[in-house]
# Entry
Amino acid sequence: MIGQVDVLIFALTIIVTALFTAVVRRELLVADIRDNPIISEHRQKSGTPTMGGFGILIGVSVMALFLFDWHSTSYLLITVIMMVVAGIFGMFDDLLGFKVKEYQKVVRNDGDKPVSIGLLTLEPGEEARIASEKAKADYNKIVEQEHKLTLIDEIPIKSETTESEKIITQFVVACFVILPGFLPTSVSGFELGILMIPLALFAIIGSINSVNLIDGMDGLAAGIIAIASIASALYANVTTGSVAALPFIIIAGACVGFLVLNHYPAKIFMGDTGSYALGTGYMTAALLGNSLIFSIIALAVPIVSVIISLLHRSHIITLPVEPLHHTLNYHGMSEQKIILLYWTVTLVVSIIALFLFGII
# Structure
């Protein structure tokens, strides 16, 4: 099981990451690199520094150098290198987001009856952002004919890479893990041979998307990855050994250290710099340490959220807003309760998985 040295490394990673995140936050404030949320309910978060994932990257890099020993930390070094590569790609996505693409209207129903606009039905007094083309067309008709909607704000919308561009970027990132030849050829004892390559690519791309999608509330992504990584470390330590558990311990410590300033109400956001790095690092550690199946189960909450969003985008189901955590917020659940719910479900799923796999 996890020993005293592992606990010490975990604690040291927390301290190192928390300190460097504070430094990164200070520099981001000086450089005026701040977030500008497009969700009207989150406008109070405008001005919070983003791209804080650099704090995570510096934290894991310092620990990898501090613990450097190729024979006992090879998995950690490969994982950290992958995180840095992914973080750099995520950084470019973050930088693109500072360019304003358009301004979207925020309106309030000042009438005495519900108003349908886009996919939403606004009750009297409710507010909504006019985002879809249908909503924009509906807004113009309603204003011209009934004058029930009052314009209360205009929100700058960031430029973003398209879905296809993101997948291409994530594919390029995922390719780095198979290039050095360190990738195992089996999963849980099943020899896959060359089929391991597409599986690894799919796993890393899926992990990046899952973490990126779930990173929409204060501390949500960092907390989930911390819990899943601790569970994966316990699993890997028993099934493969300490060399496989170490990357998960470092990732978990970095997430907890980042949470010092990222917990609700957040003083810094990780941005795509952080979500790309964490998604890539987590799944790289799982692939190298032969804990792929377990680690996917531990990451169930973000994965299910991605599936629900895909169903929504395929018009199989309809959400008022996506992803799912924003839908819960739309229906009245507070951000703090949603975060606690997601963390709790991740913890419960991880404990059940540890029990079913015979680890506890």
